[in-house]
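Recall from the previous lesson that a structure prediction takes nothing but the amino acid sequence as input. Here we apply that procedure to Ubiquitin carboxyl-terminal hydrolase MINDY from Scyliorhinus torazame. The sequence below is the only information supplied.
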Amino acid sequence: MYNIELAELVWGKRPNSALSDSVFRRWTQGFVLSQSESTALEQFEGGPCAVIAPVQAYLLKNFLFKSDKPNWRDCADEEHKNLFCLTLSEILETARLNNTTPFCLVMLAKEKSSEEHASISENQPESSQGTEEEQLSALAAEELGSERFHALIQKHTYATAIELKEAIVDQYSTWKNRFGVLLFLYSVILTKGIANIRNEIEDTAEPLIDPVYGHGSQSLINLLLTGYAVLNVWDGDRECSGMKLHGIRNQSTVGFLTLMESLRYCKVGAFLKSPKFPVWILGSETHLTVFFAKEMSLVAPESPWEQARRVFQTYDPEDNGFVPDTMLEDVMKALDLVSDPEYVNIMKNKLDPEGLGIILLGTFLQEFFPEQESAIPDSFTVYHYNGLKQSNHSEKVMYVEGTAVVMGFEDPMVRTDDTPIKRCLQTKWPYIELMWNTDRSPSLN
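The prediction returns the following tokens.
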């Protein structure tokens, strides 16, 4: 029965219970490594980036900060296996509701009917049917449609994280085969619990995967990133017209930025913008990619100067570098500065001696936060990952390396480009400049 509930949660209710074969087929791929980059996962068609990109982000975090090897791009098979299995385990542990609920792994059925054995026999030499792993691989190679696939999946439960990790390692070949991405997604969902996910999704009629276009919802992305299938990207819960709308509950391990924020469709909160590690999923209108660096100062706690600049800029959404003097009291209150009317008036006269009616960001920071600056270095190396071959130079899935400079508000603006990736990153670093080591800027699509 859970197979039907699971399919409806992921794909939505269909009038004839039939999922579009083309959409389902786009999601039937394993976690496959790029031929050109030993730590990069390849995405074959549009859609499964909602699972592949979060897994890639966590995987990069582990390669960059948990591996002992200095060259994180040069990875032996055994090391990749260990860190990949650690990554899947970590995401499942994030999704687990509490220490008393079991972990779940979803696998294709091990018991096969005589008809299934006959089907395997027709396509495989007799000598290759010996082991259970080989039989599962053969089954995965069949042209299974959605209905048949959902009839064959089985749930396996594990009480402890140690048991879970052992099982993930044992099933390593399963994650790489044709249904690996879906089997892992279903494992996350059943570990979290179908009912729990439905409680977190605001529109329970909205499936996790769009049944027409095949892209993952924000709820699905948030589930993989944070363990909570909430729809929104702001911090905490909000009240709207008497309804409680759920947001992100705490600081995420890896972050999320979106081009939609630069277009004013949403506002990503600090829990996703400032994660524990300098790895961010970047969202465009249709695709997810990953931006990352080794520089841990990028995710260091804000200095008072950085906090003041960020708060000031929330009152300056057009990035003019100033706010009307009527907003000075609000800015000072937001920063817990003395804000009684008499003192605010004194500050208005001091910060705007010519009576122009505006308060400049630079003048404000120099007055209240002198001799402080950002902890971020002047320049640092950055990388971008896009799992789609056709979106990469020479159609090879490889990391694009570049140099980023986060400039101060007072520095002259040197416009290196005005690309979607830069506009996306400016939602976190308004004065960032990027210089890539390639002829063209990396693609978000």
